[in-house]
Amino acid sequence: MTATARARAFTQVDVFTQIPLRGNPVAVVLDGAGIDDAAMQAFANWTNLSETTFVLPATDAAADYALRIFTPKSELPFAGHPTLGTAHAVLAARLAQPRGGKLVQQCAIGLVEIDVGDGGLSFTLPTATLTPAPALDMLAAALGAALLAPPMVVDVGPRWVVGEVSGWDALGALRPDIAALAAYDRAHGVTGQTLFARDADPAGPLLVRSFAAGDGIAEDPVCGSGNGAVAAFRLAQGSLVDGDRYTAVQGRSVGRDGRVEVRIVDGAVHVGGACCTVISGVVLL
C-alpha cells in the first residue's frame, strides 16, 4: 500500500464468457494514478489472478486510456483477456466512449485497437514475430507430450511457445511438469506454452490450454494473447487464410468454459469474446 493510499474504484470482470465464474477473471483498478510500481506488483500478487490491471490517463493523444498489466510476479507489455476485461470495465464506468466503434488502449507495446460491437469486444493482435522454439528435448520432457509439428515462439508482447497436440483427448489429458515448465520459461525468456488441438469435426472449435509457470500461473483459464498466438502460428503454417474465423474453447481442465472468437481480417488477427462484471466496489491503494 502506498503512503497516499485511498479508496479507488475497482471491478473484477469475467472474460470470454456471458456466464459469471466460467471465464477468466481480471482485476481492474479504474484509477491507477499515483500508485507506485511496487504497490501495483504487490496488489497483483495479492489478487492471485493471472492478471491485474491499472487504468491511467493516456499520454498519447490517439489513446482513450493507458493500461498497465501485471501477473502475480511481473509486468506484461500486453495481454489479451486483461485488454478486453479492462475495456468492458472502462465502458461500464463511463471513463471513455468508443469513437467510430473503437476504443484505443495505450500499453507498453503501443496502441491497441478494441472493436466495440453488439457481439462483444475484440482486439487487434499486435504484429507477431515467430522463431523456432529452443531446447525441444527440455520442452517435450516438461510437457510430457509429443507435438505434431515443430513448435514456435510467437512474440506478441507475451512470448508464447505454441504447438499442436494430436487431438482433444490428448490435450485434455495432458499433465505437464509445472516446475520443469517454469525452469524452461526462465531459461529461455518465454511467457509460457499455449497448446491447441483440432476437433474431430474440421469445422468444430479448437481446444486450447495455456501454461505460464514462470509467472506463477500453472494454467491460465482462458488466454487472449495465447489464442492470438495460436492464430498467428496457424497463419504461418498456411492452415488459416484471410477471412477465416473460428471459435476456441479453453478452461475446461480448470473448471471453466471460456469461448474465444478469432477472425482474420486483412492479414491481422482479431481476438474477441463476451465479458461480464462479477465484483464492483472500491479498493484501498
Describe the structure.
There is one protein chain. The chain has 285 residues and is an alpha+beta fold. Helix content is 22%, strand content 38%. It is built from 6 helices and 18 strands. The protein has helices at residues 37-47, 80-92, 136-143, 168-172, 178-188, 224-237, and strands at 7-15, 24-29, 52-56, 65-70, 75-76, 102-107, 110-117, 120-124, 129-132, 152-155, 159-164, 192-198, 206-212, 217-220, 245-250, 258-265, 268-273, 275-284. It has an 18-stranded mixed sheet that branches. Strand 16 and strand 17 (268-273) form a beta hairpin. Helix 3 (136-143) runs antiparallel to helix 5. The longest helix has 14 residues, at 224-237. The radius of gyration is 18 Å and the shape is globular. The model has no long low-confidence stretch (mean pLDDT 96).
Summarize the structure.
This protein is an alpha+beta fold and about 280 residues long. It is about 20% helix and about 40% strand.
